Amino acid sequence: MRVTENSITGNYLYNQQQILKSRTKIQMQLATNSKIQTLSDDVTASLESMKINSQIKKTDVYLDNAKKVQQFMDASLGSLDSITSQIQKIMTLAVDAENPLNANNLGLMSDSIKGSLTSIIQNVNAKHNDMPLFGGTNFRDVPVTQDADGKAVLSAEDFSGEMKTQVSQNIKQAMNIPGSKILGSGLFESINSIIDSLDAGNVPTSAQKADLEAAYKNLLNIQSLGGQTINRMDDLSQMLTTQQTNLQYMLADKQNIDPAELTIELQYKDYLLQLTNKLLAMNYPRTLFDYF
Asked: Which of 23, 73, 123, 271 is geometrically suited to a Cys-Cys bond with 79, CB 3.0 to 4.6 A?
C-alpha cells in the first residue's frame, strides 16, 4: 500500500500537536507546582484530591470550633475564679463576725459583703464576644441583679441552655456553663441570708456559714468540670492538627510535582520536537520547510 505525502504530513502534524500539548502541560505543572490542572488530567487523582481538600476544610472548621470552646470556657473559668475569690472574702468576714471585738462592726461587714456580691453579680452577668458567659441560650436577660438593699435578685427566666458547636464529625461540645448551675448552687440565697443577719445586728449562724461553704464547693466542682472540658478540647485540637497535617501530606502527594523529573521530561519533549522537524526535513528536501 502506497503511503502518500499527505498521510505522512498528517501524521507529522498530529505528532507535533501531541508533543506540543504534552510540553505545554509540563510547563503549566512546573509553573503551578501541581500535577492536576483540570479534572481530565487525572480523574481519579482529581476526585481524591477534592475529597481530601474537603476533609481539610472540615478539619479547619473543627479546629476553629474547638478553639472557640476553649476560649469561651477559659473566660467562664476566669469569671468563676473571681467569684470564688469573693466568696472566700465573704466566708472570712462571716467567721470574723463571731469575734466579740467586731460586735460594733457588723454593719461595715455587711457593706463589705455587699461589695463582694456586686463583683460576683458582675461576673455572673459577664459576656465574652457579646455572648453571656452564664446566660445559657438566653441573650436577652441577665441571670441576677442587685436591689436597693444590696442583696441579689435572681431572674425567673431560664438560663439552662447549652451553646453547642461541632468539634468533630460525631461530637458536639457545649462551650458554656449554664447559668442555672450557678443560680441553683444556693450561693445567692446564702449570701442574702448572711447580709440579713448582719444588717439586723446578728452574727451569721453556723447553718448560714455551712450553706455558703456548700455553695462554694458546688462552684469549685463546676470549675473542675470546666477545666476538664478545656483539657478535652486541647487533646482534640492536637488530634485534629495531626489529622490535618496527614491530610495535607496526602493532598501534596496527589498534586505536587517532582521539578527535576518534569524538567528532564520537558527537555525530552523539546528534543522530540527538534528531531521530528529534522526527520521531516530529511524526507522532504524540497518542501516548504526549506524556506523557513
From this structure: 123
pLDDT bucket at 291, cuts 50 / 70 / 90: very low
pLDDT tens track for 59-104 = 999 999 999 999 999 999 999 999 999 999 999 999 999 999 999 9
What b/e readout covers 142-153, taking b as 16+ CB neighbours within 10 angstroms?
bbbebeeebbbe
Asked whether 113 and 93 are in contact (CB, 8 A), the reply is yes
139 three-state secondary structure:
coil
Distance CA 213, CA 217 (A): 6
To 10 degrees, what angle do helices 43-96 and 206-255 make?
A: 160
Structural domain contains residue 167: yes
User: Is residue 78 included in any domain, yes or no?
Assistant: yes
Q: How far is CA 246 from the centre of its chain?
A: 19
Amino acid at 107: G
- Tally of CB atoms within 10 A around 255: 20
Grouping H, G, I as helix, E, B as strand and the rest as coil, residue 128 is strand
Asked if the structure places residue 142 within a domain, the reply is yes
Contact residues for 82 (Cβ-Cβ < 8 A; gap 6+) = 119, 120, 123
Q: What are phi and psi of 233, to 5 degrees?
A: -65, -35
Task: Quote the pTM value.
Answer: 0.73
| Residue with grid cell 446566660, as numbered in its chain | 135
Contact criterion met (CB below 8 Å) for 48 and 81: no
Instruction: Specify the DSSP element, H or E, that contains 164.
Output: strand 164-166
- Give the number of domains in the chain: 1
DSSP H helices in 158-205 = 179-183, 187-199
Q: Is the dihedral of CA 69, 72, 74, 77 positive or negative?
A: negative
For residues 246 and 282, the model is more confident at 246
User: Residue 130: which domain range?
Assistant: 59-249
- Has residue 28 been placed in a domain? no
Are the CB atoms for 185 and 154 separated by under 8 Å?
A: no
